[in-house]
Amino acid sequence: MAAQFDINELHWLLDIVQSIDVGLVVMDRDYKIEVWNSFMENHSGFGSDKVNQQSLFELFPEIDQAWFTQKVETSVMLGTRAFTIWEQRPNLFRFKSYQPITGLADEMYQNVTILPLSSITGKTDRVCLIIYDVTGVAVNKRQLESANTKLQELALRDGLTGLLNRRYWESCLEHEFARYQRYDNQVSLVMMDIDQFKKINDSFGHQAGDEVIRTAARLTEQLARETDFCGRYGGEEFAILLPDTSLEGAEQFAERLRESIERQQIEHQGTPLKFTVSVGVAGITPDIEKYQDLIERADKALYRSKAEGRNRTTVWQ
Question: Residue 147: what pLDDT?
Fold first, then answer.
C-alpha cells in the first residue's frame, strides 16, 4: 500500500513538473541534462529524449560557459541558491519570444534560479535550473524607461529646432563658467541672429519662417562638435557655447557657420528662399565676474554686426 502511495505521489509530482509555466532543468555535476520539462521542450524545440544525458553547453553554445560554471560552482560550494536577472543578462537560453507583444521583443527575457540538489547522503550531486519568462515585465520596464527619457529630452529641448532650450542651455553655460573658474580653461560663446527675419515672415508666411529657423538650427548642429552646446536663445536667435575653444577658434567656427547658411537655399512653395545671419563672438576673460557677462559681450558683438550691415561676424574686443 505504501509503495502504491509513493508511485501515485511521484506521478503527481511529474505531472506538476511538466505542467508548470516555468522552465525546469536538472543536470548532473558534469552539466549533463537529466530532467527537461515541457516548457523547455516547447521553447527550445528539443524533446527530452534528444537532450537526455547531453551536455548543456554542446546543446546551447550561446551560454557563456566560464561565467555560468563559476555561478553554479559557487552556488554548490556555498550550498545556497543563486540567481541571474534579465537586467544584468537578458537570458540564459536564447529562446524566441512568443508573448503577445508583437515586435517589441524578439527573444525571451529570463530570470534564472540555480538550486543545488543534495542526495540522501547529503552530497550535492545535481543542480536544478528554474527559468522564468519575464519578457512582459522587461518590455514594459524598457518602454517606461524610454518614455521617461523622451520626456526628459523634451523638457530640455526646443520643440521647433531640437536644439537645447534657453533654460537648459544657460545652465550648461553656468556649469562651464564654474569649470573655467576652477581650471582656467578657454571658453567661447557665439551668438547668432537671422537677418531681417520679420521681413521673411511678412513676405513668405510663418511656415517659411519656421523652415528658416529649422534650417539654421540643422546647419549649426552639423558644424558643431559633440562637446559644444547649441541652443535656441530666442525667437530667431541662437547661442553656441564652445568649451575649450579660443576666441580665434570660435571666430573661425562662426565664419564657417555664417558662410554655410549664406550658401543654403530653401524651396518654399516653388520659390527659392535664401537668408543670412549676423554673428557675435566673445570669450571668457579674467575680468568677467559672472556668466551673464559673457552673454552680454557676445550679444553686443552680434548687434555691432547688425549695425555694420548684417551677414558678418564681429568679435567682442
Answer: 81
Instruction: List the grid coordinates of 315.
Output: 568679435
CB 147 within 8 A of CB 200: no
Does the pTM of the predicted model rise above 0.70?
Answer: no
- Locus of grid cell 520596464: 141
Beta bridge partners of 67: none
Three-class DSSP category at 84:
strand
Handedness of CA 160, 163, 168, 173 (dihedral sign): negative
Q: E strand or H helix at 28, and its extent?
A: strand 23-28
Query: Rounded to an integer, what distance in angstroms lies between the CA atom of residue 201 and that of residue 15?
Result: 76
Domains of the chain: 2-142 (3.30.450.20), 157-315 (3.30.70.270)
Grid cell locating 241:
557655447
CB 125, CB 134: distance < 8 Å: no
Question: Can you give the C-alpha Rg of the chain in angstroms?
Answer: 33
Q: What pLDDT digit, counting tens, does each position of 33-47 carry?
A: 999 999 999 999 999
